[in-house]
Amino acid sequence: MNLGTITDVSLVHAESLKLTEAVLVELMPEEPLLGFGAWGPDDTPALLLPENWEERIDAVHAKIKPKEEWNLVFALTSSSPDTGSADSIKKEYKDTE
What we know:
three-stranded antiparallel sheet; single chain; flat; 6 strands
């Protein structure tokens, strides 16, 4: 069975913005994931963590089977007193056995 292995997660054309962490987490059916707040998050009413949060894995070097679904969760840090920006986030992977 071929696996996809994530080799890198990075920001494209970032200005005053740094990717601090990137993890993969599986969500339960109908479980939303969207949040803004201090990193690392805790399980508070302002930011409820996914049910499988403790089973999250580092995105880089993660091996993903065909048809598996994971959610990429990442933390960003701005070094600007105003606004940092990036054009997009890039995920690179390779096929592995």
